[in-house]
Design a protein that fits this description.
Number of domains: 2
Shape: globular
Largest sheet: 7 strands, mixed
Order of helices and strands: HHEHHEHEHEHEHEHEEHHHEEHEEEH
CATH superfamily of the largest domain: Type I PLP-dependent aspartate aminotransferase-like (Major domain)
Bound molecules: pyridoxal-5'-phosphate
Number of strands: 13
Distance between the termini: 61 Å
């Protein structure tokens, strides 16, 4: 029998087949070792260890039981869109209306939909290095052209307005921000956001901000792009419940955008996602309307973890870090000990069975760093610090 020649995969599929630069190799190996029963401490993950608060779980179950298990509108159930609009109206002086809100199964899906409706192949998108690992594949899928701004440790991981605007050229269609930022925990000041919003307004550029860590800030409050900006007609804010409500597996996020863009998001969603589960949206609306107590409690616990881990890191010679203002991670500079962060992480795993993520996974600005995740109970974090200390003492 002659061998059948299979047709090629699409260019899109091939573009998505990004070389992950073996940044995840140590994490993958650590997971495999743990599965075999080895005493590995996994601080390379970004999924909250807290359980989703019980009342939210109960709410979802009760809505399942009454039959909220059918199709829902592509833009989302009205009760959830209203809850998001109310939330966004509470945290910004600009009132947010239901017409501006689109619901997605997670922030990642919201970013993909928004960028799909804004970017054509070859369009420039200004992005800040270091960045969340999920951004690059989205731009690759769309064949957009990343225009990278370095947010170096020397700048406390916050670029200046000139750093950003200097990257803008005639191809630039979107400036894409993430504040509070993963992996650094840096918060962009209101003045920077306001200047950028004014710049983008004048130049006819979209300004999009991923604010998924908005509810986890420690020493200073999060300032939303919608709070800082004077005019909203070219702004998109994306947020969700994955981190703040320990609901990563529920897949709940949203985009707040001008109604004209929301209409396009409706079309995009209708042909791709076709609506999120009703009972999950009901529980998400309940979560947003009744969350003050447990979001604050989780945030306080992350802050305590951050403070205790920072105290431990202070005792380990050769390490330095910028204290994160938010989020669930500390970027630790290990470059005086080992400049190759992947080698550092690999040797650390081999010697001490502690898994940290190499900083170069997030970009050039965090090369020579490792990301220490705070999403484990305090005793495990302390044990992680001990192992890190022993590893460095033995070198
Ligand atoms: C900055 C940032 N954006 C988006 C996401 C993904 O959010 P979701 O799980 O809601 O898709 C993450 C997850 O780690 C993140 O750190």
């Amino acid at each position: 029998m002659p061998q059948l020649k299979l047709p090629d995969f699409s260019q899109l599929a091939n573009r998505l087949n990004l070389d992950s630069d073996d940044a995840w190799a140590v994490h993958d190996e650590a997971v495999a070792l743990k599965r075999k029963g080895e005493d590995v401490i996994l601080l390379s993950i970004g999924d909250p260890d807290f359980r989703t608060p019980e009342p939210i779980v109960d709410n979802a179950i009760s809505h399942m039981r009454v039959g909220r298990t059918h199709y829902s509108p592509a833009l989302g159930e009205l009760n959830l869109r209203r809850a998001v609009a109310d939330y966004e109206s509470r945290v910004s002086p600009h009132r947010c209306t239901v017409e501006e809100v689109a619901i997605f199964p997670g922030v990642t899906a919201a970013i993909y939909a928004v960028m799909s409706c804004l970017l054509d192949p070859g369009d420039g998108v200004v992005m800040i290095d270091p960045m969340y690992v999920g951004y690059e594949p989205i731009m690759a899928a769309l064949n957009a052209k990343p225009q990278i701004v370095m947010a170096t440790p020397a700048k406390e991981f916050v670029p200046s307005i000139e750093d950003i605007t200097n990257k803008v050229d005639a191809t630039t269609k979107v400036i894409f921000l993430n504040t509070p930022a993963n992996p650094t925990g840096a918060i962009m000041p209101a003045s920077l956001l306001a200047s950028l919003a004014a710049f983008c307004q004048e130049r006819g550029i979209w300004l999009v901000c991923d604010e998924v860590y908005s509810m986890f800030t420690f020493d200073q409050p999060h300032i939303s792009l919608r709070t800082a900006a004077e005019k909203l007609d070219n702004l998109v804010v994306i947020d969700g419940l994955s981190k703040s409500h320990a609901m990563s597996g529920w897949r709940m996020g949203w985009a707040v955008s001008p109604p004209d863009l929301t209409k396009h998001l409706d079309h995009f969603s209708a042909m791709s996602i076709f609506g999120c589960p009703q009972f999950i949206q009901d529980a998400a609306a309940f979560a947003l309307n009744n969350d003050e107590y447990y979001v604050k409690e989780m945030c306080d616990r992350y802050q305590l973890r951050r403070d205790r881990v920072c105290e431990c890191l202070d005792q380990i010679p050769g390490l330095s870090y910028r204290k994160p203002q938010s989020g669930m991670f500390i970027m630790v500079d290990v470059s005086t000990i080992e400049n190759d962060d992947k080698l550092f992480a690999k040797n650390l795993l081999d010697a001490e069975k502690l898994s940290l993520l190499p900083g170069s996974a997030f970009g050039e600005a965090t090369r020579g760093h490792v990301r220490f995740s705070l999403v484990q109970p305090m005793n495990i974090l302390m044990a992680g610090c001990d192992r890190l200390s022993q590893f460095i003492a033995a070198r």
